[in-house]
Every structure is written in C-alpha cells, then in structure tokens.
Amino acid sequence: MSGSGVEAAIDRVSSIPYYNQLADRIRDRISAGTIAVGERLPSEGELATSWNLSRATVREALRLLEEHGWVSRIARRGAFATMPPQRGWLLHGREGFFENESRRHRVTTAVLRAEQTELPRFAAEALQLPPGSAGYVLERVRALDGNIALYSINYLPSRIGRLVALSDVPTGTGSLNATMHQAGYDVAGASRTVEAVTADGTLAQRLDVPTGAPLLKIKSTSWNSDLVVFDHHEVWVRSDVVHVEIQVGAPAPAHHPSPAPEFGRIASP
After folding, report:
1. Helix, strand, coil percent content, the chain, rounded in steps of 5
2. Which of 16, 20, 47, 269 has the most CB atoms at less than 10 Å from its CB?
3. Which residues fall within 8 angstroms of residue 109, CB to CB, at 6 or more apart?
4. 190 or 66, which is more confident?
5. Residue 138 pairs with which residues in a beta bridge?
6. What angle do CA 16, 14, 37 make, to 5 degrees?
7. Distance, C-alpha 113 to centroid of its chain
8. At what angle do helices 55-67 and 44-51 cross, to 10 degrees?
9. What is the pLDDT of residues 133-171, one digit of tens each?
10. In terms of Cα–Cα distance, which of 161, 156, 221 is closest to 188?
C-alpha cells in the first residue's frame, strides 16, 4: 500500500489535514475490499515512508480510523483492518449527514441551486417570516460511495444564507450543519413529518430511479435553544440506499404546531 498512485496521492496544497487525507485513503481501501478485513496494515514507519508523511501524522490517522471502527490496534502486533458496526445517523443531533456518514462512507454532494431568492409561502411560514420574504435556498443531491442517497432543499433566513454563501457549502465540499454551528445556530429541537411517496419525473431524474419508485419524504423545521427557527428543509430519501428510524424527542416550542418533534436516524444498509 503506497501513496505513489495519482489517485491516492496526498494533496499537499489542500486545507484538509494530512492525517485526515491518509485516514480517508485507508478507509476507502478497506470499504472497497482492497484491504481485507482482518488484514494487518503496514507499520507506522512503513506508512510514513510510503506516503512521505511524519510518523506523528500516521499515528493520528490510525487513531482516527480506530476511533471510527476501521482499524483495531493490538499491542506488539500492529494495526488490523476492521469494519465499523452498523450505526444510525441522528438527523438533528449535533452532527449532520456529512459528518456522520463520511466516517464510514465516501460522501459526495452535487449542489443544484444555492441562491438568495423569494421564499415559497410554505417555507416563509415555517420559518415564521412574512409572506414574500427573501431567504436562501440550497438544493442538493447527496451520494454515499457513488450511490445517490437523497435529494434535499433547505430554506434558510437571509441572515443565515449570507453566511452560507460565503462558506464552502455552495461548492459541495462544506457542511451546512457545521457552518450553522460556527455561526451559533445549533439544533435544539425539530418538528418532522415522514411520509411514503413515489417519484415523479423530476424526483426520478434527481435520484436516478424509475418514475413511480418508492421514496421517503421528510419535512423538518429546526430551532435553536432560544426557540428561534432557522432552517426548514424537505428531503427525499432512497430507501434502498438508506433507512430511517424514528425516535420521539422533547416537546416542541409552544408557538409551533407540532405537539412533539421526532428525531430520526438515517443509516446506510
């Protein structure tokens, strides 16, 4: 296992830390079966030489892989490839889709639209804004390991949209959840509906499924600890790629029509 190949090479000008890049390379090879589960990885020194990295960087990459279940380190024997246990994604926990799933899968995002525009009436109402209010619309398709998993549209107040527009989210490389967290908007609660729908022509094209294919549609409105609503989104999920688990959370804010928000987990099969 070496870093000499063009695709595998560490990007020396990327803002992504070297240890993250190395961990991603090793994880991708375990996930693809190039490194078999149970196979012993090269030593820290061998990896450092092969990838032209410091041993400290290699050690941090292995620590990260072990933390996320991709590597098991045994004293005096070395590091061995493992497969992480099946886990769900808490939709409105502190982590977003990218942060959680990128630990076990290659997550890619295609941004179809990212702009300030007049919000649809239903979105303005959900965000507790007057009809005709301007806001930020973010439309994306997300994939896991090359398999299209979901299509989503986020509607945000203009004040948050301006921050998102300046981030790397519109390029498809950044996390919306992390960007909002950095701006001080953490999810304290959410009201959610989940329904079974079928793909019309547009959804079928977005999600690469036949027209009429079964999908799960999730509508969610999120608020922070001050009960300020800051995100409304709709997500269409391919149930053949991800599964949804629902858990009941704490009561919703008094001003919100939902008596009790639901917290969902999405897990890849």
Report:
1. 25, 30, 40
2. 47
3. 98, 140, 141, 142, 143, 172, 173
4. 66
5. 114, 154
6. 50
7. 18
8. 110
9. 999 999 999 998 888 999 999 999 999 999 999 999 999
10. 221
**The residue type at 182:** Q
Q: What is the pLDDT of residue 54?
A: 95
244 contact partners, CB below 8 Å, separation of at least 6: 194, 216, 218, 237, 264, 265, 266
Which residue from 48, 206, 220, 231 is spatially nearest to 129, judged by alpha carbons? 231
Helix (H, G, I), strand (E, B) or coil at 84: coil
Residue corresponding to tokens 């996390």: 175
Is the pLDDT assigned to residue 78 strictly greater than 90?
yes
| 121 token code pair | 């009436």
258, pLDDT greater than 50: no
Residue 80 contacts residue 74 (beta carbons within 8 Å)? yes
Domains defined along the chain, listed by start: 18-81 (1.10.10.10), 89-267 (3.40.1410.10)
